[in-house]
UniProtKB/TrEMBL annotation:
Entry keyword set: Membrane, Signal, Transmembrane, Transmembrane helix
Entry-linked Pfam families: FG-GAP_3
Residue span(s) of domain EGF-like: 692-703
Lineage of source species: Eukaryota, Sar, Alveolata, Dinophyceae, Suessiales
The protein, known as: EGF-like domain-containing protein
InterPro entries tied to this protein: EGF, FG-GAP, Integrin_alpha_N
Species this protein is from: Symbiodinium natans
Kinase as UniProt keyword: no
Signal peptide coordinates: 1-28
Top-level taxonomic group: Eukaryota
Keyword presence, Signal: yes
Amino acid sequence: MAPDALRRASPWLWSLFVSGHLAQGGTSNVPWCAPLPGRSYGNHVLLVERDALSHLPLPAGSSHDAGDWDMDGDVDVVVGDASGSLHYFENLGDNLAERSGRDSPFHSVRVPGLAVPRLVDWDGDGDLDLLVGAEDGQVYFYQRIDEHALLDRGPVYSALSGPFGFSVVDWDGDGDLDLIACGDSPKLRYFERSAPEELVELTGLANPFAGFQVHKQDEACHIHTADWDGDGDADFMYVGENLRYFSRTARGTLVQRQLHLNPFYDLQRRDVNLQQLSFVDWNGDGALDIIVNNVQSNSSLRLFVRERVLQGLVEGEWAGPHGLAEPGGVARFYVPCAVDWDGDGDIDLLVGCSNGTVDYYERTSQGLVHRQGGANPFDGIMSNVVAVPRAVDWDGDGDMDLLLSGFHADGDEDASVRFFERLKDGSLIERVGLENPLHDFVADGEMLVVPRPIDWDSDGDVDFLVAGASGQIRYFKRLDDGSLQERLGAENPFDGVDVGLGSAVEVADWDGDGQLDILVGTHRGRVRFFRQLENQSFLELTGDLNPLARVKTVRARFSVMPYVADWDSDGDSDFLAGVFTGDFSGVLVFNRGHCSQHDWCLSRGFTKGTSDTCSCILGYDLKDCSGCDESYFSAPPAATLSRECLPCPGAEDGFVCSRRGHCQDDATALRSLQGSRQSRLQLATITGNGSCACNPPFSGDGCENGECPPGQQYAQEELFMCQPCYPGWFKAKPGNIEQCKICEAGHFSSRFGSAVCSRCRSPYFRSVVDLTRTSCDFAAINIPIAIGVVLCSILLVLLLPWMFCPTVPLADVRLQPAGVTISTTGRHWLLDNRLARVSFRHTEVPWLDQGSYTVKLVSERQLLLCDKQGNAVATDTDTSCGTLHFWPCHSARMTGTFGVPFTCWMLLLWGCLAGILYMANIWQESHGFYATYLELFMMCIGALAALGFSCWRQRALKHTDLQRDLCSFERQLQDLHHNPQRSCPRGQERGITAGQLWDFFIFWQSYICSRNMYYVVSNMVKPLTRHRKVSYVELAGSCCLQWFVSHYWGTPFCHFIGTVRKHAETLSDPSPVSWMLASYWVCSFANNQWRVDEEVGFSWDQSSFYLALRSGTCIGTVMVFDNDALPLTRSWCLFELLQTAELSRNNPRFVGLQICTPSGVMSLGHRCMTHVLAREPAGRRLVVPYIYICRYRIYRKHLQKFFSSNI
């Protein structure tokens, strides 16, 4: 049979013929390896000429294009002639018919010279428009209005070097058509469509065809674009002396494919003129075909369609389980079933095992993964015999169900076929009994039940095949009710086909002729092939004609278990076989032959397995190694438009830019455009320049110069850089060798990049460096230091008064048997066996205030008054006021506590304070001795606290019991007399009642005891009248005097009060209180003790004594007598007696003198006045001259008579 006849009769036999011819070394045809998506291999294809267009004669200079102009689903042809007109050939299905005149949609098209048509959707409205290249260098645009009407829009381009030199395609993938045109320099010009009617030329490296070179500058330029390899991107064909094919890479750039990698290489070898091409899917198989014509001479159109060259099977490879056939004496059988069980689009593997289980191998990106346990969807499904699984959508619900049958390894029959329905959740449930749709199947003595479910009669439901016991194929047709009915005899389409005993049957369209063939696995380890002919009979092909002759196993001990599936997803059927040879058993996969895509990785890497992803050599990236890796940039395109990747400085040594900066590589250039609206094809022209952007302070082409400044160390993270020292670290000198060091003890750095660490020393408080040495914080030791400083300061300041003339308030001074005993308000702190020099102030005892004495310790609150020699003073003294002052030199040495002088305590406290500060400096590792502001502040706080305490203590000590009682008594007086008289005239108005005197005595008797008037005036009267500076009667409330009291101040006050009360009671009525109303003038209460000189006057007749006696209201004089008649020893008393005598003589109302004691009023007795002497200086000054005058006057006898009569 002739080759053309064989090709027309059987494409499959033609493929076998071509394959055999190639295997025998024939050179008439060179197939092209058409790539398969996602694979590193492909299928061989040839461009085979068809005569569908041979009846269309074309004159020289003609051109053409093809497309579905009338939108009826087939390809029409448009031919341009040398006169500038177009001819339209409509495809009627079985032939092409020319439409002329008004029937031609192009009848109105006329261009200057040769017309080169291009059918494209230029305006993007979804239908084809017409572009026509003309000899005047312009491309004219005719917009389609309807099928038979075109609107001339004028030229869209006006710089063609020839009418054939343009192509229209969406090159950059942005959705609109761009224009590629031939030029002079550059040879190829690219115009991007930026607006519906605007083309912008891209020049330089932005031109995707930059660097393209031609072999001859004067050769004709024909350019074509089409997605020939089916990868979704337009490829480029340039026809000069020959056709140069450029495919698009994964990056989007172009690379020239030469020799057998050029899909048109076979046609060029056959001298087919390819200057004028059009690319169309003529036969509707999804692959582009070509239509060519010879521009140079009269010819006809020639159609070349793509046809695949089928290959035989290659050597089998193990898949899934395999290994020793009988490990441990136990035979292993494996029955394969290849199906997309998990619905992810790839083929998984189900394997029936000799132990009755079904193993599941899931296809993943890493290959087959054996799922076990709960991950195996068939976990728990068991058979008593070797399991034979078959997956099919038996119930028509869209998912795979499981048929499970088997055989006994020892020959026992098991005719059952179990049915497992797949539920919506993916689980399997076995249907038994009448629910099993295969219950109609009855075994006929078959030892081996290998079911094959398939829709044999093409009625839409699944039928059932199985090899019978006698070697025939049993056929069970699926009826409308879902039951199975076995067809016998002539109704069995396999009647007469003998597959042999113990065989396993598989059905598939192996030869691709649209008819199902039969593949039979035999027990001899062979696979028989029965081809179905057009009359539905079967012809067994044997020998070399058996396409499965390559499938064979050595020393097979059991039938081959066949299964057909597209295992490698390359579009054709592959063969899987479960084999058992006695030595090995497992599943073998025999792939249908394919071709390797040579130079798929552009000679820059190699593929791994069947994936189309390459492992690229250094410097290259992307799946086909068309891109540049990190640290590499694209060189200008070569003549083949491929781009070599050049290393950045230092990249080949692994030190890109000395690892001190970033290289401006392709990846960096692309990252800079992230977020921009540019397609992958537009980004293909974006490249780096290989320069280094150095990190400061480095410089140079490769960043080789520079060193890190102080505070920064030479370190590597992603790159070598000058990294600032972390807080707590420092670097003092510049350089790239020295590293940052941690701050020394007591130093810190709080910021990045420190060249020096600061000393942790704050003038405000003690500071401590934290563990990271990044901050100088408040130290906890400040608290105990502050407490210690405060305590020392308080004690020091408290002791300071005892170092410099301490003052001790007096509580009482009186004469006791041991001598004058001094009682202090608080502790006097005098140490034992010490004789301290002291002085007194404000005691109201003149000799005590004016002298200097010493004291000895009696108790912690009592001292014994001594003279300078240490002898006890025995002078009668009574006072409860004033202060005691130690001499400074004596207080420093002789006062203290616990037997230690305060001087020593002061030194000890100063030492403690200095020790605290010294230890604080030692702890802080400070150089020198200093105190912080906090410590100074705490010293001030302690001092102020001590001063406050001292002031409070002094004030508290001054508030003795006497002082508190004085205040209380003064308040009582104020309550009784809300408006005391500010000033009362001397004389008769300054009287005081006996009741007032008695109240005064009762209140103060605990203090007065046996003390005299001197004590009372100094300690009670004067303190009470201190604020107002008045007499006591003015403060307590005065009255008109009745009696003048003459008394001696040295008389005990209790004796005085008792005498006055007795006198008042004697003169008063029997009423118990009437005596209290008797009023008296008592000098100590009537005279203003703060203005004694005014009270005494400058002469005796101006004294308050005289004025009181001569007031006119005075009815008598009461002289308070004691046992020694001491009043008569006082000059003022004698003066008062003389005035009393004169009043008695001259004033009949004047009662005269009444001498009184606490027992009553005396009426007898006498004493010579010449024996009375004055004691007080003021009295002697005023009274004594008056007495001597009276002695010689005539009144002398009367005075003697007065005394004689009253004493």
